[in-house]
Amino acid sequence: MLNEFSSALNESPCTQSGARAPFSYQLDDTEFWRHIPAWSEIDSKTFGDHRWQQRNSITTLARIRETLGELVGSTLIDDIDAGLMRTRMNLRLTPYVFSRINWANAENDPVRRQFIPLGSQFIADHPLAMDDSLAEDSNKVTPYLIHRYPDKALFLPTTLCPVYCSFCTRSRVVGGSTAVKSKSTYGAKPLGWDSTFDYISNHPEIEDIVISGGDVLLLRPKQISQIGISLLSIPSVRRIRFATKGVAIMPMKFTSDIEWVEALREVSRLGRDLMKEVSLHTHFNTDREITVWTSRAMKTLTDIGVRVRNQSVLINGVNNSLDCLRYTMKKLANLLIQPYYIYQHDLVPGCEHLRTTVRKSEGMSLGLQGSMAGFNTPRVVCDAPGGGGKREISSYILYDQEIGVSVWTSPAAKPGAIFYYYDPIHLLEEKGQAIWANPSAIDSRLAKVRAEATARLDFAE
Length: 461
Ligand code: SF4
Prior knowledge:
This protein is 34% helix and 15% strand. The protein is of the alpha/beta class and 461 residues long. The protein folds into three domains: 2-120, no CATH class; 137-393, Aldolase class I (TIM Barrel, Alpha-Beta Barrel); 396-461, no CATH class. The strands form two sheets. The protein has a ten-stranded mixed beta sheet with strand order 1-2-3-4-5-6-7-8-9-10. A hairpin with a 4-residue loop joins strand 9 and strand 10 (389-392). It starts with a helix and ends with a helix. The model has no long low-confidence stretch (mean pLDDT 95). The protein binds iron/sulfur cluster. Iron/sulfur cluster is lined by residues 161, 163-165, 168, 170, 174-175, 213-215, 245.
């Protein structure tokens, strides 16, 4: 069974040893989870039940060992153990996503790499990495609302998720404390949301609300209704977006949790009645997360009138090949999931092995343009560290590639401000790495970049 699964994966350009184009858009409709020893007897009906998925989620190393049995050796288990001692994100994977990992080559597997840390893969953090790279905490206006841009706000009703991603931007708060990071994670507390709704009502300039977290998949149906109806009822709110990785990591939620889907249907209907948009933003990074279960989930979401868009993160060793990205975006578009953004990996700690350079992302952006319909071509962006917002990847005003420092402005949202992104040092040429290793050399080079950026500011804006 494992051999069949492994060879099926070789059809994917997101598998390092994968075949070359042309690729088929066929969806995996096999019982792929049966290659996992603990689930070899699980039938499709059981696997397709969201409650079974949640009950059987993998949250400890002991569960990994028990579930995989003889499928993996002690070297890998020890490496995961070492990874768990260094990661800022706890372990949580649904059986769906856990069984999309090719355990015959787990070390290089793009799905494993997103969710299960290996001690051997960690690299020291960039000296200028930031706990809160997007400056969200300093723009918090209620305990659950971040208001960074004039017409948009971010509502975070929970910081729990059905899976925990090693690259999470909100690793400072999402998913509970780990050996190296203590956090104030919180679950949904609807009684505390009124101040958020009041704030939005009192700020009519806010037209767009992103409801994220955490993941809205873990909200109860009545919480989905409460949030959706309250927000849509505010006259100045024109669009709401529910953010969930659910379509990618637990698609059976949309076919088996009838009450939850009904709540979303009710919100969607109200949106249509009021001529306001209700959409769902999801998060696939490779085609490996797309199966026939995705298409079933999308059939439900399409039927209830919810538009679905995708936001990916460009991750080293996961999807940093043009073939992989192009194929993943096309496959998503075929299922009515509109590719929206591909993000430069944020400058957060604990992720140095997962980040790439701005130059690499520019290459991806150039390669994607013109290879699919314009409305399905995602925008490759850098969310400028410090709160500059999403900037087109080639719109920096300065890029010192030798030391990997790009400089950004944000004239509409933050006029007069300058933002810096730092490429991973280990991906720079030797000379750049040597400059970072020499404190006085890097100080004077950074001072030069800052001076040049300031001189260009007037011209850039
Ligand atoms: S699902 Fe989103 S919020 Fe949750 S851990 Fe992953 S990236 Fe972070």
